[in-house]
Specification:
A alpha+beta (426); B alpha+beta (544); C mainly alpha (347); A: 426 residues; alpha+beta; 4-stranded antiparallel β-sheet; 15 strands; globular; B: 544 residues
Chain lengths: 426, 544, 347
Amino acid sequence: MRTEITINGSADAAANYLPWTPAPCRIRLADAGGLSGSVDVTLRNRDQNSGGQVVFYAAAGALEGHDELRLTLPTDGSPVDFFAGGKFGHPSTADQDAAIEVTETNGGATLSLTRLMVRIRKDANTLTDAERDRFVSALATLNDRGMGRFSDFRNMHRSAALDEAHGDAGFLPWHRAYLLDLERELQNLDPAVALPYWRFDRPAPRIFTREFLGASVGGGGTVRFSPTNPLQFWVTDNTTGIRRTPRFDTATQPASNSAGAVIDEQTTLRLGEGQGNLYEAFVQMEGQPHGRAHVSFTGYISNAATAPQDPLFFLLHANVDRLWAKWQWFYHRFDTTSVATYTYLGSAEDQGATRIGHNLQDTMWPWNQDTNDPRPATAPGGRFAASAIVNAPGASPAVFDMVDFQGTLDRPRRLGFDYDDVPFEV
Amino acid sequence: MPETDWEPVFDEHTSEDEVAGFVAAVKRSPRRRDALVRLLPEQNPLYLNRGANEVIRLRGYVLAAFEQTGMPEAALPYVLEELENGRDAYLVAAAAKALRSFDRPTTELLPFLFKAVENIKYADDTLTFESYRPRWPAAHPTTALKELFITFGCLGAHARSAVADLENLLENRRDAFSASVRAEIERAVERIRADETDIGADCCTLPKNLNLLAERFRRGRPTPASMAAVEFEDQDGNVLTFSDFFSRRPSIVVFFYSRCDNPHKCSLTVTKLARLQQAIEEAGLDGQLKTAAITYDPAYDLPPRLKAYGQNRGVRFGADKRMLRSRNNFKELENYFDSGVSFIGSIVNRHRIELFILDDKGGIAYAFTRLQWEVREVLDLAASLLENAHRPAQTAKPLKVAAPPPAYARTVSNSILNAAPPLLLAFFPKCPLCWAAYLSAFGITGLQGIPYSPWALYVLIILMLSNLVLVYRRATRMKEFAAFYLALSGTLIALVSNLYLRLDYASYLGAAMIFSGSLLSSLPSKRNFLLLPLINRGQNGVGE
Amino acid sequence: MMDVSEYRKQYEEQLKRGAGGQARLRDVLDRSKSVPERLDALESVRGAKGQDVVGDIVNLVRNKDEDLELRISALDGVSSEVGEHHVLIDVTLALLADQSEPPLLRRAAFRVLQQSSFRTILFQPRRPEYLAVLRGVVTDADPQLRLLAIETLAVEKDGEVQTRLIEGLKNPSVALVPPEKAIEFLGYDLHGSYYPLLREMVETSPNPAARREAVRLLSADATSKDMLARLLQDKSEDAEIRTISATALQSIAPAEFEAQAKQIALDEEEDDDLRAVCLSALDYFGDQESLNRDEEFNRGIDRLSSRAQSGALESASGELKSAGGELERASGELERAADRFIKRRRQ
């Protein structure tokens, strides 16, 4: 007797990556061993003590996931649907280090073992060396000494295009899309990579090192790398190296400069306190802590037009995005019909709308490839990268598509990523 | 010759102060302003081996001087180039200053000014033109945005159609401008409103394709033998010669370099090349037209860089679609294309936008330079070459936009075709009146480069008649009827010869008379007539 | 197992703990209170939105008689309000420009402006004024402010600052910043006109940091190819200069770099770090076909890799050295590079 599991609607191993958010799965008896009727099976994690862990949901709307799931499978081979997501607090640390074991409920014979990864965006300061090296390696490859696909990402964030993504409500969704597009490109190179984040409100002794994002040594403006770190070959705008000097002790302090430190996570989440915790108030975080984190250094990262030349940009923004995700989770801000979730619910043509690209129904440049005024003249990078695990947000996402990233209110809208400290909760 | 008329020859060794001194002298003696125009082509040795910032300072200072001397038409392409594509506040401000003293203001300048406002709002800066080397803080600082809005105001009645858009900026995009810039916008609106001049029939127009040069005419000579051996390396490292690639079929060539930091120039050019490739495919002309992007910076743009730059901008690659770097003789290429580029060492310090359409022997048929080109327009012109190229014509799908020309058009000789484009530029409509006349004349002489449809004949007849009316109205106002009689005779000859007699040469005579009549009617003074050819010379960068 | 509802409860507690009480603006403004008391009260009005509150705090920031720390904290506290209160940009620009104000406050003002510059729609209209103020700070008495202003203007591709940086490199007596900083800043907007000077710096400068930065910028200058190849080969040259030369040479002459890098990677007498760099460069960005064909080279790498596996690393292996507060890398990088080179090819 043998069972087969498909995850994310695909039998391809490339789809065997789960965030916390439950993904649609199917199981069937591929070989009923001559039995007729049905067979009871149990699904569980192969190793409950190490590696990524999975929880099972019997139905899409199930409130809670369970460590085990019992299902009855018809012997005619027709499939049974279930849902699986990563178990909060138990992400993978290596590719395919999680496994769903299916056993016969009566008798205990193992019917199949499906390897997968609970792929989660983590605090960069806590990555294992192997996780760190995989990320660095994929990023350096994407850059390919300034000649790779990364240059599109650099070009998306140049001065002529900054209005698409800054100074208004679209700041958070645009950057969410930007990061996800990049992350998917990295995953095309190495599917085990998830974008890590830099918690700028905490010391980060393991990030600003030669082995990771480079160390600032002796006041020199260009960070140094270990001889095996491929980021030493990083080239942007035809210049080799990454210019970055922290204005604070990265090993012992949160990001800060002469004006003060970044506000911490709790303060950020309370930005709208007393005023209904509306998005309008929360998005002010573009100045503090976001802007403050940028200008806690000198170098590329401290200027909006040059910031993506430093890989740190993507870790900094992953944290900004995490803060939004956490705010959304905590205050239940996924409902796209509410101004509490997002300030401008219509499109740019509507009365009372804000600048194009910042209204909920507007498509986002550059993925919409719109190069007519007032959009920028070019739209680098083409359409939005597809994913092997989800269909959203499609080739030309709107602001709207970035909001309910876990698909809490509409499952197909899930974007396929999660943060280590932001759970999935219905 | 009096000392003041002496026109110095500048080169890489000339000091900036010497150039600035000359500019100051011309400002005091505005009749010598054409000498300033001659400093603008990138090929001028003045720019050789200077740093990019120095080039910006020099060009900006020259352009700004036109505010005092009056800006001749020959400077127009350079000014519009900065407004349309410039990213440096100093140059854009200088262009805005120049434009407000343009000899022939027109409403058609407005889109360029609005474009510049959009371009520069992220890159605006405090600057001054008080002197070539100002001391800070300057006594009269300004910004590019302020200069642009001052120019709107200076255009007065010609900017009337911009008032709504300017007010819209004040109302709906208030936050996009500082208080002092907003005040400038308000002043501009007031000035425009206060100018009650009737610009009616006197309104001048810009050529629709000011950037299109008729190289074919100028270069009606065979491709020099030395070009054949110019060697290229493509994005995959394949080596080929000029004659290997630029032969057998017409080709479209753009120039670029990957280090270019103006996104409106090389990056956009190569992005548009990709769109052009797509349009070629959609028109069913894949395999009949070649495309190439040649780098100005062959030492740095090695094959992997060429490939990456193209790929990142959607360029398709193939035997007929390549990105190229010169392996042995960029100078030869530069001479052949009369490239609008200057270098410091081997590195570009300034360049214009350049696209060339080459015939099936590698000869330059058309060139689009300086201003943005339109995919459709380039495709149509390139496709028109296929008519004359040695190719299996039956394999080509007909272009959607270019219906088969009527019989009278097909009889046009090549020499006339060759001659038409430069005329197009030199005599490009300076007013709606001329435009109507030209359109009608072109229809009659069957200029194949202009797409038309079966109904075009009727449109042309209407236009010819409208033209006559306009010429007549002006004639009555000016009390000068020679132009009208000329145009009337031309129209009659053209109509009769085409509709009844089918006499080609009579058509040309008619067209020529319409041209002459309309042109005569539209020119306010003899001086401007003499300046017209300068547009062409300035554009070509061959002014000396 | 981390129960999600429990996690939510815990998080609620955390947020509650940090929640501020009443905004105590009166205490902030009360000059009879001690500075620590007023600083504490200032925290309670952080992010306050009202016109009156922001106005009062702005007045505090501008008041030269107030305590410096309090003024800086107050500026910090309202720094996020530029979107709603545009006057904040005027105030902050004025502070930065005012040489009679304490440098610490002006530095904070600079950082607030820089931070605001990320909110482009709000800040871009003020860019000309910002740049004009920065130009005034280029020759400021405070070296830190000077450096900040020069770097910002360099990032903005300011021609005037570039000219001054070049002049400083040619004539150290008029230099506004150290040569390595000047070169670094010129790198924000690299022009062909700088290359001869940069080459000269590499050849003649006694300052290793300046030489390093100069070599880095030459990685886009094809005419420096021969010099970079020579630096890479020269065993007497500074190891880091050689490492940067390797990267630079690979950028402008990949074929020549590969030939040299292969030799260096297998040369037992070469610096191990440089060998590891060369090997990593080949591993990631070399011509993979030609590398795979080169059997002798692959055998050499096999030997290096097995050295790593057998644990025959140098005695320094695994030791961590502390230098300047930063954890120095462990040795054995060469073997790691070799190991990775082989593994990546097997994948």
